[in-house]
Amino acid sequence: MLNVHDKDYRVLDLVRQREIQDSVARAVSQKLHVTENLISRLGLEKELVGHKGCVNCLEWNESGQILASASDDMNIILWDPFRYEKKLVLRTGHEGNIFSVKFLPKSNDSILVSGAGDGKVRVRDLTLLEPILICNCHIGRVKRITTASTVPFLFWSAAEDGLILQHDIRTPHTCRNNESNTVLINLVNHMGRYAEAKCIAINPKRPELIAIGANDAYIRMYDRRMIKLSQRGNLSMHHAGAGDPDENIPLGCAQYFIAGHLHSRQRDNNRSLTTTYLTFSADGNELLVNMGGEQIYLFDINNPKNVKTCFGYTTNGYSGDFGNCYLEKNGEDNADYTKKNVKVLPPYVEELKSQANENFEQQKYALAITLYDKAISYCPTAAVLYANRAAAYMKRTWDGDIYAALKDCQTTLLLDPEHVKARFRLARCLFYLHRATEADKVLKEFQQKFPEYASNSACKALKMDIKEALDSGGDSNTSQSMLQISEYEEEWRRNTIDYKMRFCGHCNTTTDIKEANFFGNNGQYIVAGSDDGSFFIWDRHTTNIIRVLRGDERIVNCLQPHPSTCLLATSGIDPVIRLWSPLPEDGSVNEREIQNLEDAATANQIRMNSDPFEVMLMNMG
To answer: What are the per-10-residue average pLDDT scores of the chain (621 residues)?
Structure first.
């Protein structure tokens, strides 16, 4: 044991205090860089021209002095983003489109890692003539590389062969050598033969946590301290079904996340569900996910009881998983939580509610929801606001709206158990979600609790619909996957965590590299690209769209915020990188701004539910 004197402890305390002060100073400084005023003035600053193909990935170095970009032209360009100059054009040697580029931590920005469609991972020390590592271990396209800022020498690759490999540049590496232990996770062993890894991220505060997105609706998070690196094994395992669970992945090392309504929807309306990007928040507490074929979701990785998937309702009150969605929020029981219901709204919130109600009556449901969102952000324990928003969701019926309405009904009843409309809408939501058994139980409870409404025409009609559904087979929304999955996979899918927030308005059906990122030191904003050539900015707290800007002639895929200033780099199908920053307040018109946010979002929802051939024609103009 080290013998540390009191004087040493005092020195350590002073060092820690200085680190805390510096951290606070940086946070205050960064907060001033991304403000509401600056976001409202965001516009095109400059186009960086240099690539000859789609720009598939962007990456800032830690200081923000260098921007790296990589493209279908198989080149990497390092830019000086403030002089708009190329610092270096690197001909990588890749033989396929480059999908990911990263600076290796603690390398003085001299070591670059890239992954591409040729299945290769290449590591280049810019001070040397030749690459220091070329890895051919993957047999599918390498879609993402990730690093951990506090872990030098290591990086991870995710590819469409279902493998997550861990690379250590300090050790010799021989490709496809059965004695080389580089496989961290083999999704094929759990998901089945068609498993593909699409994206990967490391928690910045807890680098032992690694999140994986694949070609399904589940988000996987592993504690890699519990995983023993394994050998790649014989290629034949990639053509077999899932067998026994990997010996190197213990049951307790994984936690799965999913938007509750997607449990049994791997394909719907000709759209496959694929995670195209995921990233942890700066504090490591949240996971932001862009779901291809669906919406953007935010998951809380620390409070699973607060967001259990809202199914599994039982007749013993709200005691199943469904009932516990919000029941255990902040450790409070139902009785304590109902005391927080705000029945008299502050005047400014009442005004927002009135405006929302008026838009609802005019069938402007998207705008009504926006106003309810804002009202709830001011008054988060008013049952009436959740009840009204649930009604608007049920009328708008965008992807995931019925499930969002179900969650709002549950919150309403937690705050106000006597709310008649919320309890009836709860039964209706369950029916619309093809959960006839649960809907039947909720409706019967509704009739017992409120007998005066039992003969209501709407109640009778719903009862008939539920009976017909039960007679014809009951719950039809069950998984029909023909793939064999492992026992561990079944267990992980049974214990998923539901989303905390949802961001709607963009369209993500055409490309599988579309990003979504936090913007601002506290993640005050969410940014993501869209198939319509625009990129969207949402308010993180209300989930409302606050800006839509035209970012590409066809599709915006990549959005990478600068680490310390209000500067955003975007790219897509066009062979250019665009830099966005606050424009001067001189009265000039921002020609790239989309004015009607609700119309843009509605058009994207239509686009997302269109026939794929029609979407292709739309993208071609």
So the answer is: 41 47 47 83 97 98 97 98 97 97 96 97 93 94 96 96 95 73 93 96 97 97 94 47 64 96 67 93 97 97 61 35 38 59 95 98 98 97 98 97 98 96 97 95 95 93 96 64 82 96 97 97 96 98 98 98 96 98 90 96 93 64 55
Cβ–Cβ < 8 Å for 286, 299: yes
Nearest alpha-carbon partner for 34 in 458, 397, 540: 540
Rounded Cα gap, residues 565 and 581, in angstroms: 9
Is residue 179 classed as helix, strand or coil in its secondary structure?
A: coil
Predicted confidence (pLDDT) per residue in 308-330, tens digit: 455 443 322 333 334 334 333 44
Digit-coded pLDDT (tens) for 106-129: 999 999 999 999 999 999 999 998
For residue 208, what are the CA distances in angstroms to 60, 106, 304, 329?
A: 23, 18, 19, 27
Contact (CB, 8 A) for 424 and 412: no
Q: CB pairs under 8 A, 24+ apart, for 370-379? A: 370/544, 370/545, 370/598, 373/542, 373/543, 373/544, 374/542, 374/544, 375/345, 375/349, 376/542, 377/541, 377/542, 378/346, 378/348, 378/349, 378/352, 379/342, 379/345, 379/346, 379/349
Could you tell me which of 296, 261, 215, 216 has the C-alpha nearest to residue 506? Answer: 296
At position 620, the amino acid (one-letter code) is: M
State the Cα angle at 454 between 468 and 450, rounded to 5°: 130
**Residues with Cβ < 8 Å from 120, sequence gap 6 or more?**
94, 95, 96, 134, 135, 136, 138, 142
**Inter-CA distances, 313 with 402, 413, 477, Å:** 16, 14, 15
Q: What CA–CA distance (Å, rounded) separates 16 from 274?
A: 43
- In Å, what is the CA distance from 455 to each residue of 164, 373, 421, 440, 461? 58, 34, 15, 16, 10
φ/ψ of 523, rounded to 5, equals: 65, 40
Please give the C-alpha separations between residue 610 and each of 393, 451, 552, 614, in angstroms, as whole numbers.
20, 43, 21, 6
Antiparallel, parallel or unpaired: β 219-223 and 209-214: antiparallel
Q: Each residue of 184-212: pLDDT tens digit?
A: 999 999 999 999 999 999 999 999 999 99
Long-range contacts, 447-452 (Cβ 8 Å, 24+)? 449/423, 450/420, 450/423
Identify the bridge partners of residue 540 per DSSP, sorted by sequence position.
none
pLDDT score, position 49? 98
SS3 138: coil
